[in-house]
């Protein structure tokens, strides 16, 4: 019997990361080649930024973004509509014994990076960053 590991407060295991990356690469390839029998999905160019896998490897959440950031709701709907076929193809191409259930979410990473970049370029923030640290000037 397998030991139950408490993963609360810890990051993903190496196995979770490895399987997530394998699914990400395979899903990207499938979407790029247009291997799905759905013309609506095939006409979109979708970037797969990350795939997070549950600790028991039964659920894989793919964080995706359509090219240009538009048609996000449609992209999620098309992916969800074809998740059975995607799951079957990914399981076969990735060589997984049990392909996880696929879930799709919009990847907000690019928006967060842009917001951070805008914040760091603000004049007030630049002034604070460029200011010498008070502790450094007080030391002998």
Automatic annotation (TrEMBL):
The UniProt regions of compositional bias labelled Basic and acidic residues, in chain numbering, are: 121-134
Stretch list, region Disordered: 121-140
Q: Which Pfam families does the record associate with it?
A: RBFA
Q: How does it assemble?
A: Monomer. Binds 30S ribosomal subunits, but not 50S ribosomal subunits or 70S ribosomes.
Which keywords appear in this protein's UniProt record, sorted alphabetically?
Answer: Cytoplasm, Ribosome biogenesis
Source organism (scientific name):
Shimia haliotis
The record, for InterPro entries, names: KH_dom-like_a/b, RbfA, RbfA_dom_sf, Ribosome-bd_factorA_CS
**Matching NCBIfam families:** PRK00521.2-5 (NF001802)
For this entry, the protein name equals Ribosome-binding factor A
Q: Which GO terms describe its molecular function?
A: ribosomal small subunit binding
């Amino acid at each position: 019997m397998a030991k139950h590991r408490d993963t609360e407060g810890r990051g993903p295991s190496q196995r979770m990361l490895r399987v997530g990356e394998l699914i990400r690469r395979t899903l990207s390839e499938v979407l790029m080649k247009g291997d799905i029998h759905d013309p609506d999905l095939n006409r979109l160019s979708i970037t797969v930024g990350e795939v997070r896998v549950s600790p028991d490897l039964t659920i894989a959440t793919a964080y995706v973004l359509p090219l240009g950031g538009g048609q996000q709701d449609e992209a999620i709907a098309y992916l969800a509509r074809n998740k059975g076929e995607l799951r079957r193809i990914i399981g076969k191409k990735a060589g997984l014994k049990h392909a996880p259930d696929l879930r799709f979410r919009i990847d907000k990473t690019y928006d967060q990076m842009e917001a951070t970049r805008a914040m760091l370029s603000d004049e007030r923030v630049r002034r604070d960053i460029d200011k010498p640290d008070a502790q450094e000037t007080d030391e002998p």
